[in-house]
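Tokens in:
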């Protein structure tokens, strides 16, 4: 038997604001209860595009495979939602932008990625090597930053 959503949220999240936000976002998505896999993504665009990509790659609608795509609003909400879904006994994974690997995935007492992850170190080195050629700004953390003059987005 799956743990009720409200009980899963309270048992996995410490912050009341995060609890209520996650409860609201996941509570409106009844399809998670009827899926074998929930794929978490950041926003509305990913929620619209990922099912189309799934269908193109697999030749089937995700619903036929009991797969649901759920937008959680921001990459910082993915670990919280994963914890809630795990407490409910629902298999889940997340798809996020690269910034998630450099920020949210490395936070907390049990980070999803270690701070010295080899792939992240190599990615930073590649960004530094490509920066002069492409002209984007790198911040003190060696990651791209928004540049209003050129229009580059982080």
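Residues out:
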């Amino acid at each position: 038997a799956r743990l009720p959503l409200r009980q899963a949220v309270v048992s996995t999240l410490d912050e009341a604001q995060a609890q209520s936000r996650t409860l609201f976002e996941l509570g409106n998505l009844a399809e998670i209860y009827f899926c074998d896999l929930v794929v978490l993504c950041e926003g509305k665009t990913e929620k619209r595009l990922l099912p189309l990509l799934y269908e193109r790659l697999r030749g089937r609608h995700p619903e036929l495979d009991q797969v649901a795509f759920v937008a959680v609003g921001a990459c910082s909400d993915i670990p919280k939602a994963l914890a809630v879904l795990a407490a409910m006994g629902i298999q889940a994974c997340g798809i996020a932008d690269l910034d998630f690997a450099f920020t949210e995935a490395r936070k907390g007492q049990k980070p999803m990625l270690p701070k010295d992850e080899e792939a992240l170190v190599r990615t930073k080195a590649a960004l530094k090597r490509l920066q002069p050629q492409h002209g984007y700004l790198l911040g003190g953390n060696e990651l791209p930053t928004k540049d209003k003059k050129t229009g580059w987005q982080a």
